[in-house]
Amino acid sequence: MAAFQALQPPVPFGYDHASVKQYSFREQLIRGSFYSTFACSSGRKWINSSVLSAAFVLLLFAGEPRASAQVTVLHSFGDGSVANDGASPAAGLIQAPDGNFYGVTGYQAGKTGPNGTVFQMTPAGVVRIIKRFTSQTLIGPLLYYKKTLIGVAGSSPTEPNGALFALTGYPDGPWAKHFWHKFGGTAGDGIGPVGGLALGSGDLYGTTMGGGSAGDGTIYKVNFRSHNYTVVYSFSDTSGTGIFPNTALARANDGNFYGGAEGLFGAAIFEMMPNGQVTLFEQLDGNAFLTGPMTKGSDGNLYGTAGGQFVIGSDFVFRFTTGPGGGVGFLASLRDVYNGQTMGVIEGPNGNIYGLSLEDGTAGMGTVFELAAGSNIITILHNFGDGSVQNDGAIPVGTLVVGSDNNLYGATSQGGSAGLGTVFRISP
């Protein structure tokens, strides 16, 4: 058994539906203090969160933003610059090969109720709405694959359990909308998709928080060419792999997929092989839950965030190593100075780790943070709403993305000049 790598510095990287039991990462996270790893009877590992929170004094937390980090607001939704603009971005951005960024909103400016949009933004920050949805909110980041944008929609009057959609017409349009699957239409189908899809070998994989043969969530796949949809795995409280998956899947270098779900004692990190076999890989003790999807670093490891409200401490950044002897290694903590909650991390072009936190910071509106490669020091690069950048947004969503210019791009769900959210760039 590999020893848990507590306080080890990171290596450089180089639905809301009545029938779905909702255990949001924002409500069910542990605030773990210090961690060690033990073997369980299955040979896998679980993480004990009962050790002293005083160990966190070994970690430094830089609450003041670094002066060299420059934040630029590229677009304020609903400010009048775009006709029938979107409102309230619901996920992070992606950048496609044409250099443009693409994202989703849950609403439209000037309209009531969930009427989501898909928007395109040039590197210079010029936004246009490429597709509007009626009575549907969009809930996760898009996936670009073979000139197609693929995403998931939440509950609506016509698709009460969510839907999987695709947009064609890349890059200049006209854009056409296609529904590949409407969840919950047959017995045993998943309901309540979790935003974000992972690419396999010709198939796309995703998760739902409910549905399946036991009602405890599913892993599904859809073929890109035929759009054939299949439930690959149904979670249950007797399967030993967790229930109610709450993150998108991440594909590692070993070809397997990894994600987070509820477990008997906390978060279950499960492994799915290409043949659909699912096993429990890691158990986080103490009501721990992953707070966002894991992402792959250039060193081949997966990186993510976890945390919670039931143990003294804070959300933390971890490294997840796959394969025999692999497991979770604690990297650094966002000490609970502002009661921040995380949403996953990415690797920057300089090898550092970057992420967003919710409703914390000096103004209580969220932060951008950095974990320097080779250290366990968390630095706050920007406090949203602190007055340093006018109309800079509030309550960031999803994860950041590294642009082709090596800057970081993200979105906030609120704030900006019209109070309906922003897209921003940060140069760390």
Explain how this protein is built.
It is a single chain. With 428 residues, the protein is mainly β. It has a domain at 36-60 and 98-353: 6 Propeller (Neuraminidase), CATH 2.120.10.30. 0% of the residues lie in helices and 43% in strands. The chain contains no helices and 33 strands. A hairpin with an 8-residue loop joins strand 7 (101-108) and strand 8. The model is unreliable at 1-62 (pLDDT under 50).
Short note summarizing the structure:
The protein is an all-beta fold and about 425 residues long. Helices cover about 0% and strands about 45% of the residues.
Q: What labels describe this entry?
A:
428 residues, mainly beta, Neuraminidase, 6-stranded mixed β-sheet, 5-stranded mixed β-sheet, 0% helix, globular, disordered N terminus
Number of helices: 0
Shape: globular
- Portion of residues in beta strands equals 35-45%
Report the count of strand segments: 33
CATH superfamily membership of the domain at 36-60 and 98-353: TolB, C-terminal domain
Mean pLDDT: 83
Task: Output the radius of gyration.
Answer: 20 Å
* Class of secondary structure makeup: mainly beta
